[in-house]
C-alpha cells in the first residue's frame, strides 16, 4: 500500500534515511516532514508491507527561470530487507502520477555517481542520463 507519509511515520523514515546515507533523528524528520509538506510543492509517499513502512519517496515540483517547470525525486529508499521486490518501482510510479497531476511534463532524479545499482534501476524504468555535474557546498553562517 502506498500512501502519504504521516507524522507518526517519523521513526521509520529516520531509520530509512540512515540506510540511504543521511542519518537523522526522529525529531529532525518530524520537523522536516511537517515543514516540507506544509509548503504544498512537496510530497512524501511511503509503501507499507504488513503495516510497516518499508520505503519512502520524496518528490517536489520545481520552477526555474532558465529551465521552466518540472518535478524532481528528492529521495528514494527501500528498506534493505525489502529490496528487489518491486517496491521502489511502485514508489517511482506513484511519484510520476503525483508529478503528472500537478502538470509536470518531466520528472528528474539526481543520483550520486557511486550509486551504480540505483542508476541501473532508473534506466530500467526509462530514465536517461542527461547531464553529469559536480556539486559544490559551502557552509554559511547567518548573522
3D structure, described in words:
- There is one protein chain.
- The chain has 143 residues and is an alpha+beta fold.
- It has a single domain (2-124), classed as Aminopeptidase.
- It contains 4 helices and 5 strands, in the order βααβββαβα.
- The chain has a 5-stranded mixed beta sheet, with helices on both faces.
- Strand 3 (52-64) and strand 4 form a beta hairpin.
- The longest helix has 15 residues, at 87-101.
- The radius of gyration is 15 Å and the shape is globular.
- The relative contact order is 0.13.
Structure at a glance:
The chain has a single domain, classed as Gcn5-related N-acetyltransferase (GNAT) (Aminopeptidase), CATH 3.40.630.
Provide the low-confidence segments as ranges.
none
Question: What's the overall average pLDDT, rounded?
Answer: 93
Q: What do we call the CATH topology?
A: Aminopeptidase
CATH homologous superfamily designation: Gcn5-related N-acetyltransferase (GNAT)
Beta-strand content: 25-35%
CATH class: Alpha Beta
CATH architecture: 3-Layer(aba) Sandwich
Major sheet size, sense and barrel closure: 5 strands, mixed
Gross morphology = globular
Class inferred from helices and paired strands? alpha+beta
**Helix content class:** 25-40%
Amino acid at each position: 500500500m502506498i500512501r502519504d507519509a504521516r507524522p507518526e511515520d517519523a521513526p521509520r523514515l529516520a531509520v530509512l534515511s540512515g540506510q540511504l546515507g543521511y542519518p537523522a533523528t526522529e525529531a529532525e524528520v518530524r520537523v522536516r516532514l511537517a515543514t516540507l509538506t506544509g509548503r504544498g510543492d512537496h510530497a512524501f509517499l511511503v509503501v507499507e508491507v504488513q503495516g510497516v513502512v518499508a520505503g519512502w519517496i520524496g518528490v517536489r515540483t520545481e520552477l526555474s527561470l532558465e529551465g521552466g517547470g518540472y518535478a524532481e525525486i528528492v529521495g528514494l529508499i527501500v528498506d534493505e530487507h525489502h529490496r528487489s521486490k518491486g517496491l521502489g518501482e511502485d514508489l517511482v510510479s506513484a511519484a510520476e502520477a503525483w508529478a503528472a497531476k500537478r502538470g509536470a511534463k518531466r520528472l528528474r532524479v539526481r543520483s550520486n555517481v557511486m550509486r551504480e545499482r540505483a542508476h541501473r534501476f532508473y534506466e530500467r524504468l526509462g530514465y536517461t542520463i542527461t547531464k553529469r555535474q559536480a556539486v559544490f557546498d559551502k557552509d554559511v553562517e547567518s548573522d
